Amino acid sequence: MISGHRKMTSPVESPKNESANHYRERSAVRDSFLSNLGTVVEENHLSKSNNSDLSNEDSPLEQASCEQSETPTLNPIQEITSAPCPREVMKARIQYHFMNPLKKFRARRRKPWKLLLQIVKIVLVTVQICLFGFDRFSLVTFLENNQLALKHLFLKDYKNGQQGVEVYTRSQLYNYLHYAHEQYYQIRDVALGSYGYTKMVNGSEPPPMILCYSYYAAGGIENNTCIFNPRVQQDCINLKPTFHHEHMTIKNDTFNLGRLRDVQMIFSLKTINLKDVKAWDRPNCYKFDVQIFFDNLKHDGRMPVQLLMNNILSECKKGEIKGSSQLTTDIIKETLVVFDAIVIFICTVSLFLCGRSVYRSLKLAMKAAKFFKEDPLLEDFTFWDYREFVSLWFLLLMISDCLTIIGSVYKVAIDQRVSIRKDDYFNVCSLFLGIAVLLVWIGLLRFLSYFKNYNILLVTLKLATPSILRFFVCACLLFAGFMFCGWVVLGPFHHKFRTLTVTAECLYSMINGDDLFNTYVELTPRTPILTWIFSKVYLYTFISLFIYVVLSLFIGIIGDTYERIRDLRHLPESKIKKFIHEPANHGRSVQHRDSVQQTAPIVSETLATAQTRGVNGKHGTNLSTSSQDPFMNMISVESTGAE
């Protein structure tokens, strides 16, 4: 029976005790309406009840609590506090789900562990990326300087800032080959750097330089007839040291330039990177595989010459740094490894907590969807309703955690010198850690959204995103048309339109107002008059359209969205928000309206008492304005934690 579940007033109790109990019950109901959880009593009951209450059919007890017994001897307050209605329980669960960490702390004294963990993770990941960056740029500077030094040593007439040199005559070609050949065998005497040969032949002779050249099997013009065989052949020869600058292998008739495709001079050198000789950072030994490439593939009378270098980390012979302590070296190296291990552990814990939050969000969304489907007054769930339960910030943090873990593993491998291709590990590690630290710092915007002044900016971007994407589709179509047109028409006469990639970069720079005058000047009247006239119309039209129209519309979309949000003070409510903000008695059936009227005076009196602490507005109960909660007044009503 229903009465068996209710607390009845004992007949032997004094009127004074009965009055005190009645006052405490009224206070409990009043506090339940003021609580951010929906009802405090509901939460206490919820923690003791089975999690499958909402998935099963309504029990007689729940039906009794919703339908309000007509027994005149029972107090309506006791009926409300005895067992909560499933509708109010669902409201409390959803409302608690969308609270931010500060509200949850006020409601349940639940400490924001995930918030503290994310702050610690941001600090650790930032320190890790700084340590990695210093080591990375030290290596990059060392390799770039060595490549520049080798260009000066092996490319004749090389000047700083050039990618390479160019050859236009036969004598230049052979002079460049002879110069590189001689420089290789006297590298120890002429170079300032610590260069050496990889392996000595017969104990004292350096390994020979290799000369490879590829050519077509047949080709040439005879009696105004072109003879050509596209089959490519390649020959390689070893270049021995010169004797009194006499080159016995490379002569003026070595190559048939009419069929020659390319010439390559291949050799290897070794060097050492001292790194200022720190006690905890031992020197690294490198092997440089160098290739001097003469490119004659186009056969246009111009042969570019480039020096290509590939570095490989090699094992240094055992040595010692005098004055250094081996114990200090080991402590510093192990500390760096432990630090990376701590970062991996923190990111693993963060990944687990975020994954658990996503799982719980989906679980609650499924329960809410079932509840909405069974309630005739509510609409069924859509995909966007499910998406509202799952915070995209958690997915962002999970991606950053995975990238940080992978990047940290590569960093440990680099520090322990696991791979001989250290540069490849550096490239992969920098990619993972770079994207990870970007996502981690973007995740800070989530915590700024808890404050009104910052949240309105984030909400503006969120609400304006669909319009911006549609706008970009139209703008990209216009941009693509101008790009292809400029490439085809102006490309032969302007180096900024020579390729599609360069054309796109040039047009994008012009949108930002970069280098406009030089773009006009380089098309002089000496170009075909029709092309010159078209270039003026083309450039003026593009600049006017994109700078004065497209950019203005883009700014206008964001500005209009910001004004609407600022005037409305909140986003349009979804069906979920409307459900949790609906009145307490909303959704009761018509046949129970009489029992609702029994509780109405008590509810009205409770809300009237609560006017001094909060106001029940259109979008839910506003936060307290009392002196003990001044900081909470800064929290945006629309910002949620969704944890």
TrEMBL record:
Residues 65-79 have a biased composition (Polar residues). One of its GO terms (molecular function) is NAADP-sensitive calcium-release channel activity. CDD domains: ELD_TRPML. Keywords: Cell membrane, Disulfide bond, Endosome, Ion channel, Ion transport, Membrane, Transmembrane, Transmembrane helix, Transport. It comes from the Eukaryota. It is a multi-pass membrane protein. The chain crosses the membrane at residues 115-134, 336-359, 392-413, 425-448, 468-490, 537-559. It is found in: Cell membrane; Endosome membrane. Pfam families: MCLN_ECD, PKD_channel. It catalyses: Ca(2+)(in) = Ca(2+)(out). Residues 1-27, 44-79 are annotated as: Disordered. Residues 140-317 form the Mucolipin extracytosolic domain. InterPro entries: MCLN_ECD (IPR049134), Mucolipin (IPR039031), PKD1_2_channel (IPR013122). GO terms for cellular component: endosome membrane; lysosomal membrane; plasma membrane. Signal peptide: none annotated. Residues 15-27 have a biased composition (Basic and acidic residues). PANTHER family: MUCOLIPIN (PTHR12127), SD02261P (PTHR12127:SF7). This is Mucolipin-3. It comes from Acropora cervicornis (Staghorn coral).
